[in-house]
Design goal:
Radius of gyration: 13 Å
Number of helices: 2
Order of helices and strands: EEEEHH
Number of domains: 1
Helix content: 10-25%
Shape: globular
Strand content: 25-35%
Distance between the termini: 23 Å
Number of strands: 4
Strand order of the largest sheet: 1-2
Bound molecules: zinc ion
């Protein structure tokens, strides 16, 4: 099974994991973008607590079990 390295915690995050999220980072003066593979929980933990989470960042049913 393919897995990536979480950009926040350095642990593996598997391609089929319900916790996998992909950040696409770009800069106005640079061409292209960089993809960062992260755990949803790690990304949410890096945000300020009151940051409003959209559907993509809310825990899935599988994660809540
Ligand atoms: Zn992580």
């Amino acid at each position: 099974m393919l897995s990536y390295q979480c950009a926040f915690c350095d642990d593996a995050v598997h391609e089929t994991s319900a916790d996998l999220r992909v950040l696409k980072v770009s800069a106005a003066e640079k061409e292209g973008f960089q993809e960062l593979f992260v755990h949803r929980r790690c990304l949410v933990a890096a945000l300020r607590p009151a940051f409003p989470l959209g559907p993509v960042l809310e825990p899935t049913v599988a994660e809540q079990r």
